[in-house]
Design brief:
Oligomer: single chain
Structural class: alpha+beta
Number of helices: 23
Helix content: 40-55%
Strand order of the largest sheet: 17-22-21-20-18-19
């Protein structure tokens, strides 16, 4: 392939080197031939025109001579004294002369300016008489109507005042121009007067009737006495070689001679064909010669290239053919020598490889055996890991279930103890109640620790990122534990760096949990002295800040041998500590994992008998100016809400709870707070009560028989579409993880309360709903009207102001809801397509109904409209419209997802 390329390039190069000079010579020859032939043809035309002029001049001179001789003789013979010429005598003389001359004549007598015809055969008028000068002999031409263009030959006798005019016929003159054989088939000569009219016949023009005006350009050049030859057009507009000569003897006429250029240059066409044929033959010969020389050069190079390719493929035995002793031949010889050396080296290397391969095969057999053994071991490990994962999931599910089951009766215990403590009792009874309360709090703390550890190990604990006042959190947390410290005679001091950042973005609940655990341990293990809670800023860069928090005490201290294991699960200093101080040993393990989740680390410095110092670092984001910290919750983070209007008034509350103990506890707490309570033992009763009565608030237990709280809440929300009213629904559950909260909010609930709940916490939480009448929820019809009249945004664009307002002006909540919508979108789309394919119109209507509410929550009222259209079509069973409605809804959903992603990637909240 490579040699062919070289040969082709060499062929082209040599071919060009041969043909370029040849073409240049051919072109020069052709150009020189053109000029030579043109000059020759012009010379011939000029010679013909000159010859005709000389012949015409000779003829006219002879006629003039005869006329002058006749006039002299006639005047002498016919003179009659002073009276002039005898007319009769002159008449006979003129008649005899013109007869011999085959012409016509007339004799005139001149008297001043008058002219008298003495005698003659010419019929003349004054306008036809030519101009003359006495004593001169001249020839004139004149126009004739029918007889062509004859000549007047003038002879003048000055002594007698006689003027003799002789008119010769045109035939004699025509004969001079009738046979231009030397000019070829297209050649002609003719005579023209100064006005551009034919005097003699033209070869290609009829002289019948009036004469024809010749082209003005050649006449103008002729009359300017420019005797030359030119390339021009004739009276036929045919290209010719034109030669002309000026004739003064006839008063300024011209002799024209020309030949057609096609005939004149016919030999050039022959020459051109011969040159083309010669060029083609030369090109063929040049190409063959170029191919021959190119092949002779490229063949050895191609052989060398092929040998190189074969050697590169692994065959080292090939050798290149050596042709000649030139540079290429020497190169081939050197190549063969290199190939021989390479062959020898390859043989040596192959021998080495064979030996090494045998060693590797032996080693490979050993490795295969080990791999088989390792595979069996890995299979066992996978099975063990699978069993461990299953056991871990079973443990997590068991802990979650047991947490719920324990929290439910514990809620009754703590609630009843709080209610009993508010009654009038004697000292012994107060002691008993205080023991119950302490035991309940301890049991609740143990359950919470176990549940937190389970969620951390299962990877189910997520951190929030919301703005909060870190200084305020540290101060309020220390205030809570300062009472316990003072009860033991211990001083609790807070030292905060003044320049430390106050407003940060993170999870305040988990930060409070870490500090509470460390402060609780410090108080527990300190009998005298003081406890110091301090915080300082370590570094700040970009949009984040790193903070170090320390809790120092003067307690019993930790032995150095236990410092490395103090943060492990169920780890304590010794068994006597458990008996003396209590606790599960999970607190510090949970603290360490929470700190790690907050991108920090924790360590301890301690000396037995002198106290301990626990230090940990955490990294928080620095929120923008538009993100304001939420007020710290008084319930330790257990009671949360998505939208909390704050005011105070007695409420009519529907409590949906299947546990009789919890019914009694919560009912007593609510009624003690001044609220009215109606009970429902399951979800169906709650739905019926909500349909038939008006409530200010619904507290909905999640786990209930027959119909659970989530389904009941959905049914209540669906019923409200037709009534136009909307009642706040609060989830009441022991399942208090972030995922659980998100699920409750997604079903249409407004918040949740974690079991067990203290009376003060529950009443403070419910007071936030006081004084606000239930806000009406938009029906389908009113929603359509609002979308068509009140939305100032462009269709297809999210109204961020409306979305933020519906999220209680919480940018973090809006981001959270947006992330939920994006995560659930694909699954919802698949379910909708499956429902349409299986014609499950009811399920399709429920999906559209959910999207309708979510679109309104996120400020996408145009999505609400398309969801409403799909819901109506599904409930009406209009199968022909469902495909188009679903396609429109999918397109609008994709549009909303795109805008939500942009909002989530932005550094600031929308609106």
């Amino acid at each position: 392939m490579r040699s062919n390329s070289i040969q082709a390039r060499l062929t082209i190069l040599l071919f060009l080197m041969l043909i370029v000079p040849a073409l240049a010579v051919g072109w020069i020859t052709y150009s020189f031939s053109i000029e030579t032939i043109k000059s020759e043809r012009m010379r011939v035309v000029g010679q013909v025109a000159t010859g005709k002029r000389e012949l015409l001049a000779s003829t006219l001179s002879q006629s003039n001579g005869r006329a002058l001789a006749f006039l002299s003789a006639m005047v002498a013979g016919c003179r009659r004294g002073a009276d002039g010429i005898d007319a009769r005598c002159a008449g006979r003389a003129v008649g005899s002369f013109v007869k011999n001359e085959d012409a016509r004549g007339a004799l005139l007598r001149l008297r001043g300016n008058a002219r008298d015809i003495v005698i003659g055969t010419l019929s003349l008028s004054g306008g036809q008489l030519p101009e003359f000068a006495p004593g001169q002999l001249a020839v004139f031409s004149r126009m004739a109507s029918e007889e062509g263009q004859p000549f007047f030959i003038q002879a003048t006798d000055p002594s007698s005042g006689a003027l003799f005019l002789l008119e010769y016929p045109l035939a004699g003159i025509q004969a001079i121009f009738s046979s231009p054989q030397e000019l070829g088939d297209s050649g002609e000569t003719f005579l023209a007067d100064r006005n551009g009219f034919f005097i003699t016949h033209a070869r290609f023009h009829s002289m019948q009737g009036r004469t024809t005006e010749i082209t003005a350009r050649p006449m103008k050049r002729c009359l300017s006495r420019e005797n030359t030859e030119v390339l021009d057009l004739d009276y036929r507009d045919v290209p010719i070689i034109h030669g002309f000569r000026y004739i003064p003897e006839i008063g300024g006429g011209c002799i024209m001679a020309h030949i057609d250029q096609a005939e004149a240059f016919a030999s050039l066409d022959v020459l051109k064909r011969k040159l083309l044929l010669a060029t083609a033959m030369f090109l063929g010969i040049a190409f063959i010669v170029a191919m021959y020389f190119a092949r002779s050069i490229a063949r050895p190079i191609g052989n060398l290239t092929e040998a190189t390719r074969v050697i590169a493929s692994g065959d080292y035995s090939v050798r290149a053919a050596v042709e000649g002793n030139d540079e290429i031949g020497q190169l081939a010889s050197s190549f063969n020598l290199m190939a021989e050396k390479l062959y020898a080296a390859t043989e040596f290397l192959e021998q080495q490889v064979r030996e090494r391969t045998m060693q590797l095969e032996a080693t490979n057999e050993e490795l295969n055996s080990e791999i088989v053994e390792r595979g069996v071991l890995e299979q066992s490990l996978r099975q063990a890991r699978q069993q461990a994962d299953e056991a871990n999931r079973a443990k997590s599910e068991f802990l979650a279930t047991m947490s719920h089951e324990i929290r439910t009766p514990l809620n009754a215990i703590i609630g009843m103890a709080d209610l009993l403590a508010a009654t009038r009792m004697d000292r012994a009874q107060n002691d008993y109640v205080r023991v119950i309360q302490n035991a309940g709090d301890s049991l609740l703390e143990i359950i919470s620790d176990i549940l937190d550890l389970s969620k951390i190990e299962a990877g189910q604990m997520d951190l929030e990122t919301i703005p909060f006042d870190m200084v305020d959190l540290l101060e309020k947390t220390s205030e809570i534990y300062s009472i316990r410290a003072r009860g033991k005679g211990i001083a609790l001091t807070v030292c905060l760096e003044p320049a430390m950042a106050r407003t940060v973005a993170g999870d305040p609940t988990r930060l409070r949990q870490v500090i509470v655990n460390l402060l609780g341990n410090a108080i527990k293990f300190t009998h005298a002295g003081e406890i110091v809670l301090s915080a300082r800023e370590l570094s700040r860069g970009g949009d984040s800040v790193e903070v170090q928090v320390s809790v120092k005490d003067t307690g019993i201290g930790i032995p150095s041998g236990k410092l490395d294991t103090i943060f492990e699960n169920f780890s304590q200093v010794d068994s006597s500590t458990t008996r003396k101080f209590g606790g599960t040993g999970l607190g510090l393990s949970i603290v360490r994992r929470l700190v790690m989740m907050m991108a920090g680390r924790i360590w301890v410095e301690s000396e037995v008998g002198k106290g301990s110092a626990f230090h940990f670092t955490v990294r928080f984001k620095l929120p923008g100016a538009h993100e304001l910290p939420l007020p710290a919750s008084d319930d330790g983070g257990e009671a949360r809400t998505a939208q909390i209007p704050i005011a105070r008034r007695p409420l009519h509350i529907l409590l949906a709870e299947d546990s009789e103990m919890n019914q009694q506890v919560v009912t007593h707490i609510l009624r003690a707070g001044g609220h009215t309570v109606s009970l429902a033992a399951n979800g169906w009763q709650a739905v019926d009560a909500a349909r038939n009565h008006t409530f200010d608030l619904v507290i909905m237990d999640i786990h209930m028989p027959e119909l659970d709280g989530e389904q009941a809440a959905k049914m209540i929300r669906h019923t409200e579409l037709s009534t136009g009213a909307r009642v706040p629904i609060i989830a009441f559950t022991a399942m208090a993880s972030k995922e659980d909260r998100d699920r409750y909010l997604a079903t249409g609930m407004d918040g949740y309360i974690s079991k067990p709940v203290k009376a003060a916490t529950l009443l403070a939480y419910l007071d936030r709903f006081g004084g606000n009448a239930p806000s009406p929820a938009p029906t389908a019809e009113t929603q359509e009207t609002a979308n068509s009249t009140g939305n100032a945004k462009t269709p297809g664009t999210v109204d961020w102001g409306k979305a933020l307002a519906r999220c209680n002006n919480s940018g973090e909540l809006l981001r959270h809801i947006a992330a939920m919508f994006i995560a659930a979108r694909e699954k919802m789309r698949v379910r909708a397509r499956e429902a349409l394919a299986q014609k499950e119109f009811g399920a399709l209507a429920e999906i559209a109904h959910k999207l309708k509410g979510e679109g309104g929550l996120l400020g996408a009222d145009w999505l609400t409209q398309s969801a409403l259209a799909l819901e109506k079509a599904a409930r009406a069973g209009q199968g022909d419209l469902l495909e188009q409605c679903l396609a429109d809804l999918e397109a609008n959903t994709a549009n909303l997802v795109s805008q939500l992603r942009v909002m989530l990637d932005a550094p600031r909240n929308p609106g």
